[in-house]
Amino acid sequence: MTTPQTTASTSGPAIRVQGVEKSFGELHVLRGVDLDVAPGSIFALLGSNGAGKTTLVRILSTLLKADAGTATVHGYDVAAKPGDVRRSISLTGQFAAVDEVLTGRENLVLVAKLRHLPDAGAIADDLLARFSLTEAGDRRAGTYSGGMRRRLDIAMSLIGDPPIVFLDEPTTGLDPQARIDVWKTVKSLADNGTTVLLTTQYLDEAEQLADRIAILHRGTIIQNGTLDELKRLLPPAEVEYVEKQPSLEDVFLALVGTPANEDATGKESR
Which residues fall within 8 angstroms of residue 50, CB to CB, at 6 or more apart? Predict the structure, then answer.
């Protein structure tokens, strides 16, 4: 697949969100979200369950329409040119969407053929190698560990080389080693020039991966910056002549005022 190109996509932000609002009945999920994501960066959208992270990703990936505001992805307006947006992105949800009856290689070949790409076998072999799955390529995906399934899922989403990837809580339910494996995969995406928008409720995940972090709370961005910029929001604590620098967790709790795993709205996450 040829990567879509526009002047806006090459000169401006990879993703731009301005004043986006979304409600479901009486529940106001997004209350005017603004953010820019630089090309080739990892941008973490950090928030508690129910903060509106998934709703924003669904709007950016054209699965939902915003009630107000504008958003562009790879230079395309998500409302006016949804087809161009879809050709520019890949979306990986909270649960791996692999066919467990097929082998890992067969999953990749199937997606490549569905996208009408030539030499589907070579594409599959290249991705298996890139994601350290070559030895497991001929095994049924149902025998894979959680981390392997997630890596296969991300590999499938990259067929066609989309310039922008949305990862919606990609390590949910994974054990610590599997999470580290996925982190390495995400870092490699950015190293190869892919723009990654990552949603997470895990503070360490944002701390490890993100070039910039936006904290989404009750439907609005309450802070947005690099890890160092966010840490500077709080003064260091002095203990026995030892200066303790604030962690991202300290910043998050000071801004949000609730534990990171608490549902900030009292509603089911959207």
Answer: 263, 264, 265, 266, 267, 268, 269, 270
